Amino acid sequence: MSNDKGLQDAHVKIGAKQTMKLVELGQAAEVYVAEDAEYRLISKIEALCNKHGVKITYVDTMQHLGKACGIEVGAAMAAIVKP
């Protein structure tokens, strides 16, 4: 998320259910996880990403991740969809 526009330009799915589904289907290029999300969600997505070889990038808060995704609310996680 080094550019100023954050994740808004990429094809992104936001939220735990959608992110986990994309990883399980092998369609996630990269996953962003908020460090202040529920521990059970973080541990579950870490295990899935390790199993499927998907890179995880951690973001400090759900609020920052939501803002980077262009939404007004916080997001626990988001996935970049493979092209």
TrEMBL record:
<dbReference type="Pfam" id="PF01248">
    <property type="entry name" value="Ribosomal_L7Ae"/>
</dbReference>
<feature type="domain" description="Ribosomal protein eL8/eL30/eS12/Gadd45">
    <location>
        <begin position="10"/>
        <end position="82"/>
    </location>
</feature>
<dbReference type="InterPro" id="IPR029064">
    <property type="entry name" value="Ribosomal_eL30-like_sf"/>
</dbReference>
<dbReference type="InterPro" id="IPR004038">
    <property type="entry name" value="Ribosomal_eL8/eL30/eS12/Gad45"/>
</dbReference>
<protein>
    <submittedName>
        <fullName>Ribosome-associated protein L7Ae-like</fullName>
    </submittedName>
</protein>
